[in-house]
Amino acid sequence: MNINIKTTSIELTADLKAYVEKRVESLSKIIDISHPTAVIRVEVGKTTEHHRSGDIYRAEFHVRVEGVEYYASSERDELYTAIDETRDELLRQARKKKGRMHDLFERGARSLKKRLKGIKPW
Predict the structure, then answer these.
(1) Which CATH number is correct for 2-116, 3.30.160.100, 3.40.1260.20, 3.30.70.20, 3.40.50.300?
(2) In 3D, which of 37, 34, 42 has the Cα closest to residue 71?
(3) pTM for the complete prediction?
(4) 71 backbone φψ class: left, alpha, beta (φ>0; ψ -120 to 50)
(5) What's the pLDDT tens digit per position in 41-95?
(6) Is residue 45 within 8 Å of residue 57, measured between CB atoms?
(7) Which residues pair with 54 in a beta bridge?
């Protein structure tokens, strides 16, 4: 697993790095991020410094595992909220993909069973 963390207009503190790594590790429930070819790119940063509306923070996650790519981004007024929302979106995408693959496998197995039903064992 390869995690690359990039920051824009903010400093990468030890607390922020630990928080991002903790959120990335929580993806391992659904996505096999321990695979040697897994590449995870995380970009967090401040997009605007407006004196009336306040700071706007952005979080982006790019996850590529075994040729499958997941991407999510979020913009919020708090950095940690943006990171959490982005992680939740990645988990939603992964669950959807996993469900599709499981359904496809079941359809194939059902089709194979129908074909084998008429073959006699002797």
Answers:
(1) 3.30.160.100
(2) 42
(3) 0.77
(4) beta
(5) 999 999 877 666 778 899 999 999 888 899 999 999 899 999 999 999 999 998 8
(6) yes
(7) 50
